Amino acid sequence: MITQEQIHQLAEICLQAAEVEIMPRFRQLQSGQIEEKLNHHDLVTVADKAAEDFILSRLVALYPDALLIGEESVYDDPASLDKFAEAELSFVLDPIDGTWHYANGSVNFGVMLAIATRGTVIGGIILEPVTGDYLWAIKGQGAFQRINGVDQPLTAGRHNALSLTDTMCCYSFGVTKDAERQQAIEVANKMGRIMDYRCAAAEYRLLNTGAVSFVIFQNKLNIWDHGAGLLITQEAGAVARMIDGSEYSPQITGKLLVAESETRWQEVAALFVK
Question: Which domains, ranges and CATH numbers included, belong to the chain?
């Protein structure tokens, strides 16, 4: 099991990477420092690669026997994911979640780090580089937001009393196939205010700090995008399952519904039942 001291040491490494590699390049990137991966929405920058190298080099010094999985290195070597379920200790890093925002000068991005043993996430950190604040959790010990060095407990359920049409939510339905997009539009008409940040770090932060009632993620649900966020969500008392009720697993594809309560989860999931 990981300790609170270790969690904050890891968060400090992420914060150092933000101070040294991420923020100095923010809104300073040149065209040659931004590349496309799968399409023009899926970007990687020199800051992503530099921050990943910064963090992973420090992790390997502290935990030489651990499995290290970084989003950018996995893109070049997908086989490293095959070891995740069996590794005694692993770290899964997204050096800049929300690279599109980062590359376009928007503040909606974050650093995400999950700590796992044999495929089970036992610790999670979501750092907001612009402020230096971060969400963190250890399995079985609750979830917290550290602001200016002070931990504040995270507790889900702020919007439970509101009707579905009065809630705020995040729903990424703009990247689906035509048939799914039509269903998304029909479902969206039964919801309240909908936002789509296309940034898991930002949306997990909004859910776990009580700003939104639920979030729907979809398509390929990578472990570096969801490992830390799901643990923090569950430790805060919220509920996360695939829309069909099954449990999340790394690299699964589909709709992941994360809601502030079981009641809200059931209410939203019912909208997708035909």
Answer: 4-153 (3.30.540.10), 164-271 (3.40.190.80)
